[in-house]
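Example 3.2
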Amino acid sequence: MSKMAKIDCEGHELEFPVVEGTENEKAIDISALRKQTGLITIDEGYVNTGSTQSGITFLNGEEGILRYRGYPIEELAKNCDFVEVAYLLIYGELPNQTELTDFRDSIRHHTMLHEDMRLFYNGFPRDAHPMAILSSVVSAMSTFYQDSLDPHDPEQVEISIRRLMAKLPTIAAYSHNKSAGQPFAYPQNDLSYCENFLQMMFSVPCEPYKADPTFVEALNMLLIVHADHEQNCSTSTVRMVGSADSNLFASISAGICALWGPLHGGANEAVVSMLQQIQDDGGDVDKYVAMAKDKENGFRLMGFGHRVYKNFDPRAKIIKKACDQLLNKLDLDDPLFEIAQRLETVALEDEYFVKRKLYPNVDFYSGVIYRAMGIPVGMFTVLFAMGRLPGWIAHWKEMHESPAKRICRPRQIYNGPNVREFVSIENR
């Protein structure tokens, strides 16, 4: 028998079941609250609301724990490549060699875009943000692949998954090529997932290109640590849109739009913009640290602290190590990297930041690595979307396979005007 929580409401004692997860997380199931009482709950931003039960990702912000399907993120980042982790998230288990080979081969088979889709890029202005292009082209895929739009047909869902995993790097690379005025490079299916993306990003017809193995390794790690993060804004968006039985392409496109926001995936762009601002102002890190401490100033150091993690972000630990190794190996003379390192020292040693647990987060280090790899700032969030794709797919798939699925329809408390008499325009 499940435990019950008692709520006293207007003289009536109500009981609601307490749901407990496999990691001993507890929640009060209030799904019958409105039916029994006519009342709803208010939770701005849903920060105290569990929208679903999920078996994909476990996150403990207080302890700094992140696990995909039970596997610690540290182990996956150390031992797996991104395609292997994608399989784990989408299908629930790490693949054996045969399963992994089949998954890789099916992705390679679908890397090219329809030639008519390439023409879309001619309609975007050169300075269009790559995230806007990414979202638009992904949404347009539903017009090119009308044979696989039914969310209730397992075969159609499966082919859509493979197409998205295969084509998103191509769409992303072409978004960069468009803004850079470079020709589009066709995918090369003999390359790995990350190698192929980098060659489509940076290769030109006039000379051979081979991706730096250091960059390939760094990109693989970044995609893994971004692959899922429980019920965040973009993932919740994918599930909400998908709950209306919208096809997978439309749902992922909506998730991309949510990720674009500067308070979500766009934060890594904001980090580099902040570093550039400090550099343009003379590079005085102490000045900006003081501004951040001043509550009246309004200035905020980007890339520090996290809404969920009240300890060091485990992803940031992984990326910090990779960031240090990459910068040491490249020996880059970049003032922005020096500013980043000085800010990192402050955050880890200054009592103000330590007391408030404002540690450097995943966005801080990822922005620095992307810059070191020569990836333009406008592409930072695009790479975040590439990494987050398998998590979005996994949640969309899990939702549709759940017998408890229903369309998302939050309630509200109305606080506008009471009923008013209509006044004709002549008398207003």
